[in-house]
């Protein structure tokens, strides 16, 4: 998984992002510490070799970002996470783990408990290129999170917040066309945001197909789709080449492959491809949005949720030109206001909404009950 490279300016001059590294390997702790020091803009305020030590260190050192390994002695990452967030709720936790089915499941569980993102840690036997990718993604994620104002993790029951900064006026809504397909693009912080939107959208999910591009590795996308099916009691799986796009089904773009749509024989089906990354991403939201604009036109409904980079902006241009509706998550409820912020700044959003309001708005559009 990779993302658009961010500005290398990092935090404001003179301000360092406070980071704690939690991993049972002294080699990994030292390596990550060196990388962040060399990148600049980060202050390693604490390290810990297990979850128990991490809880004490978080309360004492008050880091803004915590890198949390899953597999550790005494207290593992999954058990330590809620205790860490209780000790210092303002910390943003990134889970790091080797890429296995079990760790993918645990990582997604950590996201449901309050972690904001995850990173697949390369195995020592892997080629040097894997470590280089991990290093780049790590620094980019920490820069993006460090540039957002630290704030306590918000629960689904939290009240709608105050907008962090003024946004350009949204586009006028296109003429009312009942949506025939819901498109969702997300990245950092996306899994929890997607869950919230789809939970709020029930029972309208039975009446419309949902296509999701969430930036995550291949093994994670399969687990994420399974999780959505369990959570929502709606058929959900990774999209496969040739799958029919049908109401009541959720299809998630498989990690490492672009997912688009094609119309043939009166049916709309999934088209996967291994083309080059777009916005340094594969799967890319832009691919789905662009192809859906050509197939669905004004009957497409798209939402861009929290995430770093600008993936989705070019695709949103095609959608708005075709008469489709595009909704962006607001800055205050986004973990990183990169992707939705890019949509808003480009003047492509018809609505800019807090996470708590997006599902309700989509439901109104889908059922025809919106004002």
UniProtKB/TrEMBL annotation:
Keyword Glycoprotein: no
All copies of domain Response regulatory, residue ranges: 18-136
Residue list for modification 4-aspartylphosphate: 69
Entry EC number(s): 3.1.1.61, 3.5.1.44
Enzyme class, broadest EC rank: hydrolase
Location(s) in or outside the cell: Cytoplasm
SMART domains recorded: REC
InterPro entries on file: CheB-like (IPR008248), CheB_C (IPR035909), CheY-like_superfamily (IPR011006), Sig_transdc_resp-reg_Me-estase (IPR000673), Sig_transdc_resp-reg_receiver (IPR001789)
Residues of the active site: 187, 215, 311
Gene3D superfamilies: 3.40.50.2300, Methylesterase CheB, C-terminal domain (3.40.50.180)
Keyword Cytoplasm: yes
PANTHER family membership: PROTEIN-GLUTAMATE METHYLESTERASE/PROTEIN-GLUTAMINE GLUTAMINASE, PROTEIN-GLUTAMATE METHYLESTERASE_PROTEIN-GLUTAMINE GLUTAMINASE 1
Sequence similarity: Belongs to the CheB family.
Role according to the record: Involved in chemotaxis. Part of a chemotaxis signal transduction system that modulates chemotaxis in response to various stimuli. Catalyzes the demethylation of specific methylglutamate residues introduced into the chemoreceptors (methyl-accepting chemotaxis proteins or MCP) by CheR. Also mediates the irreversible deamidation of specific glutamine residues to glutamic acid.
Annotated protein name in UniProt: Protein-glutamate methylesterase/protein-glutamine glutaminase
